[in-house]
Amino acid sequence: MNNNKYRIPAFLILIVAVFFSVSALAAEPGETSKSLNDIFGSVNKFLADIFFFDIIQMVPASESDEKAAGMPFIVAWLVVGATFLTIRMGFINLRMFRHAYNIIRGKYQVPGAMGEVTSFQALTTALSATVGLGNIAGVAIAVGVGGPGAVFWMMVAGLLGMTSKFTEATLAQMFREVRPDGHVMGGAMEYLSRGLKDKGWSKTGKALAILFCFLTIGASLGGGNAFQVSQSLSAVQQQIPELVEYSWVYGVVMGFLVGIVIIGGIRRIAHTAQAIVPSMVFIYLIACLWIILGQANEVPGALGLIVTEAFTLDAGFGGLLGILIVGFKRAAFSSEAGIGSAAIAHATARVKYPVRQGIVALMEPFIDTVVICTMTALVIILTGVYTDAQYAPLIDANKGAALTSAAFGTAISWFPIILSISVVLFAYSTMISWSYYGERCWSGLFGARSAFVYRIAFLCFVVLGSIIKPTNVGNFSDMLILGMAFPNLLGGVLLSGKVKAALDDYWDRYRSGEIKRHNHP
Question: In 450-481, which positions are buried (b, 16+ CB within 10 angstroms) versus exposed (e)?
């Protein structure tokens, strides 16, 4: 996929990104907002026509009421694909849970295995991309738009997504390329092109791989970058009001901090993520538990509300369908299960059996969606901010992080400060991991020598994310990230037979005692 003829277009992309960033800083705030938002609005409409056309239309769709829309093709694709893989793999998401935990603890490390990072580092690198603003801002948006019932469908999507993540990571290990210098090239673009070639579908595999790379590059600039800046800015502005008028300052600072890390490659990203992820998760969960335990007597009622409203027919079947759609969309954006992004990180892990890394990967949606997203949702529901009229503008503007900040503020006044710190850490770690995902795909399309072009373009989008409206950034991010599921899940389903065979072989060896614990010295 490395082709020199793409280098000129690569530089053109850089020029466009730099032009937008410079013009954004130089123009008047109103002029900047209007021109950039007009551009992103047009792009979003184009993407919506491709991936978000409704295959089921219950009532006329409304831009102001997400629940009124029908079932978008890409959401249905995620539901059907994840369900198929879960059944095909014999509900591995449930029966391999304990084994996954033991692998993460290092019980099955094998000396001399090929790869760049350990299984745990690959997991934390992937988690640093998935555990982010989707858990804070995305959940708040889901509850604000779809009500508490959307949380139930987020959890269902997370459980089904565990098998999607297993399939992706296993295929990434099977079809990765370990180069002479020790660097690893792997991910959906590799198993789509090489895996489908083995089945005699070379042209189809190559076309899907190229499509995946373009979508991943766009998603890294949107959901993995501009969305993180936009949502974290909305939370920080609650503590630093001066940033409302000088939002670009936040973008420049974040760009500088991200730039320091992304020039280091996957090893530095893995080490940074391994240090940041546990800390930011710990800080955030302690803050959530503080509120949840403080209102422990109301938790059963909140959980009951999540379940009952997940099946409500107050607004008819179309309303129920709308709640399901909101839940699955936000879960996919949060955990990225079925998207294929995390496979790039898992391809670099040092493991003897590809299936083993897949089993590690299935823990991601559980940690991300079932645990962290549910705790965020409980905070939103227990504090009641999603029904408070004074916070309606935040929901309408898709300022999910600010809504979550308001929820913390209603419980204890100084909690938003803690949340702002957590938000910045979530955003920062997500951005450095997504920069790696995007760069791998960029190198596959345009050549490794042009990687610096992508890095500069990525940093330009950091600045853009601090200026463009959160709604436009959110829609742009949703469409590209969810769009990645089309080529990725198609490849996963077509190659699922190979994954199932490897899983059965691995499990037979495990049960026979051939695979033992403490293989390493």
Answer: bbebbbebbbbbbbbbbbbbbbbbbbbbbbbb
Range of the domain at 286: 52-100+112-501
Query: Rounded to whole angstroms, how far apart are CA atoms 231 and 306?
Result: 25
CA dihedral over 375, 379, 384, 390, signed as positive or negative: negative
Strand 54-56 versus strand 71-72 pairing type:
antiparallel
CATH label of the domain that carries residue 305: 1.20.1740.10
Q: What is the CA radius of gyration of the chain?
A: 22
pLDDT 10s digits, 465-504: 878 776 677 677 777 788 888 899 999 999 999 999 999 9
pLDDT at 8: 41
Q: How far apart are CA 207 and CA 205, in angstroms?
A: 5
| Secondary structure letter of residue 185 according to DSSP | E
Residue 418 falls within a domain, yes or no? yes
Decide if 517 is inside a domain: no
To the question of pTM greater than 0.90 for the whole model, the response is no
Residue (of 352, 420, 371, 426) closest to 134 by Cα position: 426
Residue 399, exposed/middle/buried by CB under 10 A (0-12, 13-18, 19+)?
A: buried
- Cβ neighbors of 188 (< 8 A, separation 6 or more) are 168, 171, 172, 209, 212, 216, 340, 343, 344, 484, 487, 488, 491
Query: From CA 134, how far away is CA 225, in angstroms rounded?
Result: 12
Q: Is residue 3 part of a domain?
A: no
| Token pair of 323 as six digits | 């709640």
Could you tell me if residue 6 is inside a domain?
no
72 bridge partner residues:
54
d(CA 288, CA 281): 10
Domain count, the chain: 1
